[in-house]
Every structure is written in C-alpha cells, then in structure tokens.
Specification:
Blueprint lengths: L2 H74 L51 E3 L2 E3 L4 E6 L5 H14 L4 E5 L11 H5 L12 H11 L4 E6 L7 H12 L9 E6 L6 H10 L2 E4 L2
Parallel strand pairs: 3-4, 3-5, 5-6, 6-7
Antiparallel strand pairs: 1-2
Length: 280
Amino acid sequence: MNPKHEVQSQDWFKAALCAALFLLIIFLLFTRSSCSSTGTADSTSNVAEVSDSDHGAVNETPTEAGEEDAKTKVESKPPASPEKESPEKGSDPLPENAAVDSSPATPMPTNESESDPAGSPSGEPRGQSIGGMNVKGEKLGVILDISGSMSRYLDSLRTEINSRFEAPVFLEVEGCLLEESSFDAAEIRSPRSENPNLRESVMNSIRELVEVHQVDSVYWFCDLQDERTEVALAELMTLAIGGGKTPRGFHLYVRSTDENPDPKLKNIIESSGGAFEKRR
C-alpha cells in the first residue's frame, strides 16, 4: 500500500472517531438535561401537591371547628316559644301597641238589694229581709212601738229579726212620737222600769243606738200615727247622714202598719240609704 494513502486513511479514521465521540458527548449531555428537567418538573409538582394538601388541611380544621361551634350554638339556643294562636276567624286581632287593661272588672249590681245605698259606706254586706224589706247593716238596732195596737206583731217580728241578724239591739217605746231628744247615758245604765229595753222617746232611743251601741242601721217599727216635730226631724237628719257624735251616719228603715211618712221623713230615709215599707 502506498504510505501516503495509509496516512490519509488514518487521518480520516481519527476524524470519524472524534466526530462519533463528539456526537456521543452531545447525546449524553442532551439526555442528562432532559432527565434534569423532568426531575425538576416532578419535584415542582410534588411540592405543589404537598402545598395544596397542607392548605387543605389548614382550611379543613377551622371548617370543622366552625361546624362544631355552630352545632354547640344550635344545642344551647333556647327552644323557640310556641307560635301565638291566631285569632278566630271573624274576630279583630288586637294591634301590637294596644294597651290591655289588666285591672279586675267591677261587678255590676244585679238588683237594688245588692247595690250600695246612696250615702252609705262601701264594702257593706248584703242585706237581710225583714218582712219583705231588704235591710243592710253589720250591727242592727231595732225600735219597737209597744202600744196596744202593735203588740200582736212583736213576738213574730223579734223572732224573724233574731234569725236574720247576729245580736241585734232591741229598744221599746210606747207610741211613735218624734220630738227633740233629751238623751242621758246615765239613764240607760240605771233603768227605772222592770223592762230594761223600755225607753221614754224615739229620738232618745235612736241616739242611744248610734252613739252607745254604735249600730250602722236602725229598724223602726211603728204605725206613724203620732206627731213629728220640726226640731226632731232636723236632729234625725243630722244623725242619719253623719254629724255630731255619729260622723259616719246610719241607715234608717221604717215599717209602718198604718200611715205613710211625710215628705221630710221620707227624705231622711232616702238620704240615709234606708227604705220604707207599709205593711199590716
């Protein structure tokens, strides 16, 4: 072989070998670069996943805590009050700002016997019937005309009054003359008669009943056939409506078996809150 050609062949061989090595190095560098990029991307993805998972865990904790707080609030919340009953159909509901009167209603009297008489103190008990007339009073005083024409009524009248009232005070007078009083308390402590209930005059008896025995009602049983003086009528009015030693007054009830009262006596009876009855 020609030595010149042999030298050239060796040069080409070396050049080809160098080129192959160069390509191999380039290939290796490219491959390494690709692997590095892939690893970096994977690690970045992993970091992102870890970050997302951590963030989810952080968010999950307050959410669960919030749910627990909400549950606690629901459990601790007092039960709702029942709904108000709706008014019946056709009725007018009260407005929200309407004032409701809670004070107790005052009962209306059903008849005249249950109503308070004019000028009388309130809170009196209901009256009791004597001969058909309603008589009110916690303590009753009775004046009986014991003249001959009236004696036939007395026993039954005493029995009736005692059955209706507790401890009534009975005084007796012969006749029904109404004149100015001459009341002396010493005389009632030392009666001059065998009958301890017998008195000299109607006005003295009335004053004794209201001033000494402190009755709040007087029941006078008579026939009204005797005289009534102007002075006695004025004195009786003062006592009945409240004056002198009887500031609270008393109720005057009169039952007559014969005559009607004159206008002045009738006015006294009505002003005291009492009543009149004529019955044999």
